UniProtKB/TrEMBL annotation:
Residues 349-371 are annotated as: Disordered. InterPro entries: Aldolase_TIM, NAPRTase-like, NAPRTase_arc-type, Nic_PRibTrfase-Fam, Nicotinate_pribotase-like_C, Quinolinate_PRibosylTase_N_sf, Quinolinate_PRibosylTrfase_N. PANTHER family: NICOTINATE PHOSPHORIBOSYLTRANSFERASE (PTHR43202:SF1), NICOTINATE-NUCLEOTIDE PYROPHOSPHORYLASE (PTHR43202). GO terms for biological process: NAD+ biosynthetic process. This is nicotinate phosphoribosyltransferase. One of its GO terms (molecular function) is nicotinate-nucleotide diphosphorylase (carboxylating) activity. It is an enzyme of class 6 (ligase). Keywords: Glycosyltransferase, Ligase, Phosphoprotein, Pyridine nucleotide biosynthesis, Transferase. Pathway: Cofactor biosynthesis; NAD(+) biosynthesis; nicotinate D-ribonucleotide from nicotinate: step 1/1. It catalyses: 5-phospho-alpha-D-ribose 1-diphosphate + nicotinate + ATP + H2O = nicotinate beta-D-ribonucleotide + ADP + phosphate + diphosphate; nicotinate beta-D-ribonucleotide + CO2 + diphosphate = quinolinate + 5-phospho-alpha-D-ribose 1-diphosphate + 2 H(+). It comes from Ornithinibacillus halophilus.
């Protein structure tokens, strides 16, 4: 059983290193800025009795993520972590600018060298969770929540997939492109066919879809229909070939191309941008499918979608059933700062910073991940 299942069942409060599987080199300071390591040594030699409170915050309205990971980091690599006092919000909490999301109190030399790593964990996880949350929210603008597939596998280094997938889960996306994205929270990734598959069938979308169905007969059958830049023609071909077996069609038209439907219907153009996946193309596709009795076939739209683009589509009532989003969900626009704000119980902080008590913070109990 994954820890996330235990957490959702209330058996544990937070995920631990059993989930995160940290690099052991963290213990020796390999990933810490050198000045933190030097400060650790100075504190050990010159101020061994110090007790500091380090406070973490950011500057946006956000969806917090990374607290379980940051706490597990401290519990795994700090010196005598059981003696530290940690208060924190939880993954998924909505947070405000400058709100304290976590405090850690104890000897600086015990945990201070982890400051930059904690900042980075919170920054990346919160950025992704917030981006996904905003996109998912945009996808229910019409009043009906439409699924958002997290497709960020090609937009960043592969080693980020597990953490990004968890952050996307916290943000509200439970359909994700790779197994790795599901490692911390789910079961398996999902997906149907890429353009590469259709290429091997020389652009024959029906043949490619037939092959997919024969090899994966229990999967929902969703055909990719923009390979030939003629989505309505190819959608109707697969709909006629597979009938009720066809669950959906996916459009991923490049934003530099104009679909052949518009080239055949010049009279429609002149009042909108006909490039890429656009509202008029999807309206026309929906009508073409409905006119031939394929009202059950859903439309999946991918390629260059952002929060603003989805909201625009939804405000227009564009008949998209599912959105696939990648690159825009991985914009790292939220940064965290850790500041020492108390020294031996009294206020002491750099100019412009101060201790900001937050009644929402909950005390974190120490839990050894080896238990």
């Amino acid at each position: 059983m994954k820890e996330i299942e235990q957490k959702l069942q209330g058996k544990i409060n937070r995920l631990t290193n059993k989930t995160f599987k940290f690099d052991e080199r963290i213990r020796e300071g390999w990933f810490s800025a050198v000045y933190f390591l030097k400060t650790k040594e100075i504190a050990e030699k010159k101020l061994p009795q110090n007790n500091v409170t380090m406070q973490f915050f950011q500057k946006e309205d956000s969806v917090l993520c990374g607290t379980d990971e940051a706490i597990a980091l401290v519990h795994t690599f700090a010196d005598k972590p059981e003696n530290l006092e940690i208060y924190s919000l939880k993954d998924g909490d909505k947070i405000s600018p400058f709100e304290s999301v976590m405090t850690i109190s104890g000897p600086y030399q015990s945990f201070g060298f982890l400051e930059g790593i904690i900042d980075g964990i919170l920054a990346r996880r919160t950025s992704v969770a917030t981006n996904v949350y905003n996109v998912v929210k945009a996808a229910r603008t019409s009043g009906k929540q439409k699924p958002v597939i997290f497709m960020g596998d090609r937009d960043d280094h592969y080693t980020q997939q597990a953490g990004d997938g968890y952050a996307a889960f916290i943000g509200g996306s439970t359909a994700q492109a790779t197994h790795a994205m599901n490692e911390w929270w789910g079961k398996e990734g999902m997906g149907t066919m890429p353009h590469a598959m259709i290429q091997m069938f020389r652009g024959d979308v029906v043949a490619a879809t037939q092959a997919y169905h024969e090899v994966f007969p229990n999967d929902d059958l969703v055909a990719l229909v923009d390979y030939n830049n003629d989505v309505i023609t190819d959608s109707l071909k697969v709909a006629r070939a597979f009938g009720d077996k066809l669950v959906g069609v996916r459009l991923d038209t490049s934003k530099t191309l104009v679909d052949k439907y518009f080239l055949r219907n010049h009279h429609l153009m002149g009042t909108f941008d006909p490039r890429g996946v656009n509202p008029e193309l999807i309206f026309a596709l929906r009508k073409a499918l409905d006119d031939e009795g394929y009202k059950h076939v859903e439309i999946v739209a991918t390629g260059g979608f952002t929060e603003d683009k989805i909201r625009h589509f939804e405000n227009l009532g564009v008949p998209v059933d599912t959105y696939g989003v990648g690159r825009s969900l991985l914009n790292m626009k939220i940064g965290f700062t850790g500041d020492n704000v108390l020294l031996n119980g009294t206020p002491e902080a750099k100019e412009g910073r101060r201790y900001r008590p937050n009644p929402r913070l909950e005390k974190v109990e120490y839990r050894d991940s080896r238990e």
